[in-house]
Amino acid sequence: MAERGWTRGRPLGAAWAARMRGLLHNGEHAERGDSDDSAPTSVVNCGVYADGRRMPGEFSPDEALAEACRREGAFVWLGLHEPSALEMAGIARTYGLHELAVEDAVKAEQRPKLEQFGDVHFLVLRTARYVPHAELTESSQVVETGQMMIFIGEQFVITVRHGDASEMAPVRADLESQRAVLLQQGPWAVAYAVTDRVVDHYLEVADEVEADLDIIEEGVFSRERSAPIQQVYHLKRELVEFRRAVVPLQRPLASITSSQGVVPKEIRRYFRDVQDHLTRTVEQVSSYDDLLNSILQARLAQVTVDQNNDMRKIASWAAIATVWTAFAGVYGMNFDYMPETEWRYGYPALIALLSGVTVLLYRALRRNGWL
User: What pLDDT score was predicted for residue 15?
Assistant: First the structure.
């Protein structure tokens, strides 16, 4: 792949460099007191890790990288949450991030992918979480998605999270307390742990969506038929959003597991486990989509059958009413010579005849399933 721009230690393109200088110039004014010192920052956590252990002390992104460069085998884990363009500009200058990757990290509108810019890899994931709801309606939010970007360099890993799904605090705590041996593998170990966390959330979402599918299916095929078509279509739309997060991730993981020399061999084994979990989720999503299509077709067929039944009932009652209308039409023509009109028992006999015909016709229609 042809590279554009720069890696760490190389100059930026002219247009991007000018933009960076402007942003950084504003940042320098802020440091001198020209802006509010209490302005919120997107830095969630910044730590330096050596030999699988986190070094004590608090570090700024610049200080952390300088400390990691002084120690052999050390690296920085910088966690960001929805950073602004200004903050990413400063971090890009310090860590040597490519302009295209930085722009993607700020906008957060990317499909899952893996790109390489010099010695820095850029991995994009889409996060997902299930939104609990009392009942499934046409307006219920079922799946909420966000994005996770990971910059993986020789001495740093930067995670940029957009949205509330897949928080990194549990991942960091687990690595620091339980998996120090894994942290010794360097920045790719963090990339694995983050990816594993995201994919585990996929599995949780898939299980919860399956429960909603069971409710929909039960409602469609129950006697009351309490699941309208709108609910089925809404859940299908939410499933499409979930599918967009899950399915495209297969290619980046395949690239990681098949790479030679870039990702440590031991970490590739862990990524294969994540790939297996992702494959399971993709199969679940595909089966859910097929099931929803079947449920939707079944519900549409039920609506058609119900409409046909209603039309048959309407036609049956119209046929019964036609008998009375026909006799009323005959005796409403005012002929001069109608013997029945002179008969003393003509009216009771006519009513009895019409009632008998009505009962016979009703029973015949009932027997044939029209009423």
Answer: 44
pLDDT tens-digit profile of 20-77? 444 444 444 433 334 344 446 788 889 999 988 999 988 899 999 999 998 888 999 9
Looking at residue 34, what DSSP letter applies?
A: I
The two tokens of residue 305 are: 């059958």
Kind and range of the H or E run holding 212: helix 187-221
Question: How many of the other CB atoms lie within 10 Å of CB of 82?
Answer: 16
**What pLDDT is stored for residue 233 in this prediction?**
82
Residues 216, 231 contacting (CB under 8 angstroms):
yes
Q: Which two tokens stand for residue 329?
A: 């039409």
Quote the CA–CA distance of 143 and 281 in Å, as a whole number.
14
Distances (CA, A) of 253 to 133, 225, 246, 259: 32, 42, 11, 10
**Which pLDDT belongs to residue 225?**
64
Q: Say whether 258 sits in a helix, a strand or coil.
A: helix
Nearest C-alpha neighbor of 146 from the set 193, 109, 114: 109
Q: Which residues of 14-41 are buried (b: 16+ CB within 10 A; e: fewer)?
A: eebeebbeebeeebeeeeeeeeeeeeee
**Residues in the chain where the model's pLDDT stays below 70:** 1-40, 223-227
The 113-117 sheet, strands edge to edge: 53-54, 43-50, 75-81, 156-162, 143-152, 120-130, 113-117
> In whole angstroms, what is the distance from residue 36 CA to residue 101 CA?
29
Please work out, in degrees rounded to the nearest 5, the angle formed at the alpha carbon of residue 101 by the alpha carbons of 171 and 199. Answer: 30
